[in-house]
Write a structure and sequence with these properties.
Blueprint lengths: L2 E8 L2 E7 L2 H7 L4 E8 L2 H11 L10 E2 L3 H12 L14 H29 L2
Antiparallel strand pairs: 1-2, 1-3, 2-4
């Protein structure tokens, strides 16, 4: 089941957490402003990583953090980049994907002609 990992600002404090119902959490944390969120099937590793990263900024006994602007931008970029640390990025994209496709097409065509068509035609000559 998909969950939300969120960053909510309430004054000069920030709440980093996860929920199954983002709207209810936004209502519960009023007057907080939703800065960023990510929909994921496995929120626990991401939450653990974010909380470990900002452990020095955590207010004792709460899920609130006092973050600098650079840390807010960093956290937002993690959430907006799917929180995956780019583990599953495509190997090729854009022009290199097109060139690879064309090269593969010609290579496959060569092998088919060389090892399938030519031996069959050689039997008839």
């Amino acid at each position: 089941m998909a969950s939300y990992v969120y960053l909510i600002q309430n004054g000069d404090l920030f709440n980093i957490g996860s929920t199954n119902n983002l709207e209810r959490t936004r209502i519960d944390l009023r007057p907080g402003e939703l800065i960023s969120f990510l929909i994921t099937d496995k929120p626990e590793p991401l939450i653990k990583n974010l909380r470990k990263t900002y452990a020095d900024n955590r207010l004792p006994g709460s899920d609130y953090y006092r973050l600098a602007n650079s840390q807010v931008k960093e956290c937002t970029s993690v959430l907006e980049s799917d929180g995956s640390n780019n583990y599953f990025q495509p190997f090729l994209k854009g022009p290199s994907l097109f060139i690879f496709f064309i090269f593969s097409w010609f290579l496959l065509t060569y092998f088919i002609i060389e090892f399938v068509v030519n031996p069959v035609l050689a039997r008839f000559s």
